[in-house]
Amino acid sequence: MQILFFRYSFILSEINYKTLLYKKNKKAYNSFIIYLIKEGKKTENKDKKNITRKKIINYVLNNHVTSKAGIAKELNLSMPTVLANVNDLLEKGVLEETGEYASTGGRKAKSIGINKSYCHAMGILITANHIEMVLVNLGDEIIKKDRIRLKFTAELSYCTEVAQKVKTFLEGELAKDTLLGIGVAIPGIIDQKERIVLKSHALGIENYSLRFLEQALEIPVYFENDANAAMLAEKKQKYPNAIYLSLNHTLGGAFCIDGKLFRGQNQKAGEFGHMILVPGGRKCYCGKSGCADAYCAASVLTQDNRQSLDAFMEKIESGDEKVLQTWNEYLDHLAVLISNLRMAYDMDIILGGDVGGVLSDYMIPLGEKVMAYNGFEHDVSYLKNCSYKKEASAVGAAKYFFTKHMGEL
Question: What functional role does this protein have (predicted)?
Fold first, then answer.
């Protein structure tokens, strides 16, 4: 009862609550309590309906094509509940009938899938020298992408130029009412509530307001740390508890618990790049020495962009001894970092970023090195390849809007 009073306490401002609490006005008091109980049940039923609907949408998304009977069986829902929700989602256009299953003697069951073109979202990754843009449909498919050289500056003109690039990118692509919003991934620590980049070494900014960029884009905008966004690009149902190791030009990370990003008290959770890996070791851009970033970031292989990662990997294939030595040392340090993270968190570890995108062919030698540091496990099945070898941060930032919209249906 106290919870109900709390939930609807705003009503008391319009009602003389003192009269309700006196015994001489028991009738009014009882009527008010009945009203609160009814409203509480309405809210509870609505919450249950939303949870059920999200489960159905996620199930269809993960299975691509299914049937009403399949949904009922796998989600342990009654057929009336499934029929009511699925029919409503079909009417709204979120789901669509994709065909028929083979007859088993009775009426043919209709196959159901996600209507990928129901809605779209755009994702942007801002880096020091480029912006990366993607347009994603509800099926998590990238239907358009572009990478433009644009040097970041803290000037207002930069926001205006980004907005113009976005406008050009979207021209003629889709009906405006299907675009839910734009997710913007930024390499830095972000205060989402205040729309501020608290600190970004990569962009060279501190306490930088994002409101100018938000206003310039003129549609709903979501800002996220680049590593967190890359984590969001992965399927939560596949990895409800996992670490994402973002092996880009700089090393970042993120992790989720029960399918939700864990941000920490100061939005700094997942800053694995600045864990000390080699005490007194190489100088890191943050000012410390021996950080994991100085040993496991992609810049170690690309020599701070003096060569591309593709060129480095080609030299490995050609048997360049110097490059092979650098690669072997890189894997040694990465193995130590992975082993430490596994010991600390006991979760799956997703290898992402630029280097993560090329590691799939080197999982055996990496796994052997990791096992040398871990005497508690007999394999490295917890090491996972990322879903997106490129554009992960931009895709994850865009996908935020799908999650938000599906929760509001």
Answer: Transcriptional repressor of xylose-utilizing enzymes.
